[in-house]
């Protein structure tokens, strides 16, 4: 079991309140991802769950038990950091087994748990190496292995892939998804990476300035955002925001994803000039400077050529558009 609940959790550093009352439930076996702009409080929230920061007010519960005052080592929670935090003088085997050893677990049991985790993570050939003799990706697998052997109720990941190169990030991301399926464990994962959030999460929590903006399944946040903040945050490239009035519409702002804007050299609703093009292989992004709405992005599948500085016409697909009021709240019709 591993159900986490936060009720009205706050955190104050000095006089500054950085977490301003968070309510959240992460169900047993769920993969929950925290996203939000830099400084919004993702890591602080994670560290409070782990017990590495005190909770200023509110309750943190694991399977119903209030754990606010429980020492980190007693929480049955394992945390994997961006910077691995392995002991340099210990072998992989000893790094992975250390947590259990400190808990006084019998040696045979430690060996069995370490071997099982090593197999899951394909670490067997590396067990006698020290951290300095391994690549970043291998070290991160050891850090994940160290978390697994403790069979915690809850895994916390703080941007675990951000020190890895692009190919290794993809491989390790897939590995984490597999581990989640195999372990059937509850996981909370902090990331800046849209792809990680969209692909790993059962549930995404969008945070902004210490508050939860919206919680939902990835595609629900993408297709049904509550406000301009969530609409702009989820999805890459970002949603376009247009002034409704200049399109003859009654809402304040019209939101349209780059893939739902048609581009033509001869006709359309909005005139603009091509600012620059990005050909990404499978798709082309065209950035168009418009007088009424600023810079807009158009996404087309395949390779397309639009002359830089040339005049183009854009037409948002109204059926796919989102409408927002002057406060940025979604107007659902
Ligand atoms: N020990 C501390 N003392 C004072 N302020 C802190 C401390 N730790 C974090 N903060 C502040 O709390 C706020 C939230 O920080 P936090 O690291 O949780 O944000 P984050 O969303 O994880 O950011 P990032 O995405 O950049 O890692 C920030 O304004 C930060 O400056």
TrEMBL record:
Gene3D superfamilies: 2.40.50.100, Nucleic acid-binding proteins, P-loop containing nucleotide triphosphate hydrolases. Keywords: ATP-binding, Nucleotide-binding, Sugar transport, Transport. Coiled coil: none annotated. Residues 4-234 form the ABC transporter domain. Pfam families: ABC_tran, TOBE_2. PROSITE patterns: ABC_TRANSPORTER_1, ABC_TRANSPORTER_2. InterPro entries: AAA+_ATPase (IPR003593), ABC_transporter-like_ATP-bd (IPR003439), ABC_transporter-like_CS (IPR017871), ABC_transpr_MalK-like (IPR015855), ABC_transpr_MalK/UgpC-like (IPR047641), Mo/tungstate-bd_C_term_dom (IPR008995), NA-bd_OB-fold (IPR012340), P-loop_NTPase (IPR027417). This is Multiple sugar transport system ATP-binding protein. GO terms for cellular component: ATP-binding cassette (ABC) transporter complex, substrate-binding subunit-containing; maltose transport complex. Transmembrane segments: none annotated. It comes from the Bacteria. It comes from Paracoccus isoporae. The lineage of its organism: Bacteria, Pseudomonadati, Pseudomonadota, Alphaproteobacteria, Rhodobacterales. GO terms for molecular function: ABC-type maltose transporter activity; ATP binding; ATP hydrolysis activity. Belongs to the ABC transporter superfamily. The keyword Transport applies.
């Amino acid at each position: 079991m591993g159900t986490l609940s936060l009720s009205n959790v706050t955190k104050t550093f000095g006089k500054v309140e950085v977490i301003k009352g968070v309510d959240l439930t992460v169900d047993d076996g769920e993969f929950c991802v925290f996203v939000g702009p830099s400084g919004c409080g993702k890591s602080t929230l994670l560290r409070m769950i782990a017990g590495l920061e005190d909770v200023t007010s509110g309750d943190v519960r694991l399977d119903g038990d209030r754990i606010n005052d429980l020492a980190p080592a007693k929480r049955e929670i394992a945390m994997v950091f961006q910077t691995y935090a392995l002991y340099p003088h210990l072998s992989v085997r000893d790094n992975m087994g250390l947590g259990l050893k400190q808990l006084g677990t019998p040696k045979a049991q430690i060996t069995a748990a370490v071997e099982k985790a090593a197999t899951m993570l394909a670490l067997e050939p590396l067990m006698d190496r020290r951290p300095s003799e391994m690549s970043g990706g291998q070290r991160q697998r050891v850090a994940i292995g160290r978390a697994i052997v403790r069979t915690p109720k809850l895994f916390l990941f703080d941007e675990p892939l951000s020190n890895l190169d692009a190919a290794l990030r993809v491989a390790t991301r897939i590995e984490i998804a597999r581990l989640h399926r195999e372990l059937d464990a509850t996981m909370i994962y902090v990331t800046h990476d849209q792809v990680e959030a969209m692909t790993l999460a059962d549930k995404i929590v969008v945070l902004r300035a210490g508050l939860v903006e919206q919680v939902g399944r990835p595609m629900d946040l993408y297709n049904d955002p509550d406000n301009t903040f969530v609409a702009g945050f989820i999805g890459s490239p970002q949603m376009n925001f247009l002034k409704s009035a200049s399109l003859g519409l009654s809402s304040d702002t019209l939101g349209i994803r780059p893939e739902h804007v048609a581009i033509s050299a001869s006709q359309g609703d909005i005139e603009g000039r091509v600012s620059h093009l990005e050909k990404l292989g499978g798709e082309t992004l065209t950035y168009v400077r418009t007088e009424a709405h600023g810079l807009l992005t158009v996404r087309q599948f395949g390779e397309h050529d639009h002359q830089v500085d040339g005049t183009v016409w854009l037409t948002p697909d109204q059926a796919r558009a989102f409408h927002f009021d002057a406060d940025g709240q979604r107007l659902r019709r």
